[in-house]
Amino acid sequence: MPAALDRIRVGSAPDSWGVWFPDDPQQVPWDRFLDEVAEAGYEWIELGPHGYLPTDPARLTDEVVRRDLKVSAGTVFTGLHRGPSVWESTWEHVRQVAALTRAMGARHLVVIPSFWRDDRTARILEPPELTAEQWAHLTRGTERLAHRVRETYGLDIVVHPHADTHLDTETHVEHFLDATDSDLVNLCLDTGHYAYCGGDSVKLIQTYGERIGYLHLKQVDPEILADVVNNGIAFGPAVQRGVMCEPPSGVPALEPVLTAAQALGVELFAIVEQDMYPCAPDRPLPIAQRTRRFLRSCGA
């Protein structure tokens, strides 16, 4: 039997049910997601895109409690590299999500940088590389956001490196970590996105362990990824091709990642996310059930 990963709190998210947007006819209804994530054996969930789950705290509390679920985090998208001009609009979005996240008893806010390439149309929105000034805006703006979120809502932010954003590769992630205050800014390490962009999750955990504040568990299909990279395919169309695949058929192997995370000696959420937008409504539940069984076989 594998060693018990008793510091790892496993959960899932609307993303694993093909949910990317607050409202989309291709997505499963929110109540079906809650029913099925509980049926699959998960205890923890994320809120997903703001507005997908009910935003009234009393109603949402009733919905999750009666399914024996708890909320681990909310998620926001930001474009802080654009500088002070976007601060007010960013905070307006963040405060809504942070207020609901706190009301649900969660302690984390996952912060995802904005896309330089549209994840639905593949249209180029911005250059893929930041200037030195934009890097400064990103790092200082993230610290400012972390401080205000902590002071106002008592939450810790965890920044999520993501494909087709400016925070993606090992070089970019290490630059970001080295340029930000470890007391304020830590990472949500998404194993799938990091592999998608050429990174090694175990190496990152072992090198920057004190900066790993949260995990997303995900795998990529290496053959599909090779085609995606060779042909410059955007993230959205890559997902439709199945680049994010069901564990344990892809990379990185999750057992070493979980073992390395356990060795940090701190409690960490490990939230399963298998990007599947769009997908047939009957597809997510069997995958979620098999994935939960697989993670139990790893000790989680």
TrEMBL record:
Gene3D superfamilies: Divalent-metal-dependent TIM barrel enzymes. It comes from the Bacteria. InterPro entries: IolE/XylAMocC-like, Xyl_isomerase-like_sf, Xyl_isomerase-like_TIM-brl. It holds the Pfam family AP_endonuc_2. Residues 34-298 form the Xylose isomerase-like TIM barrel domain. This is TIM barrel protein. It comes from Streptomyces actuosus.
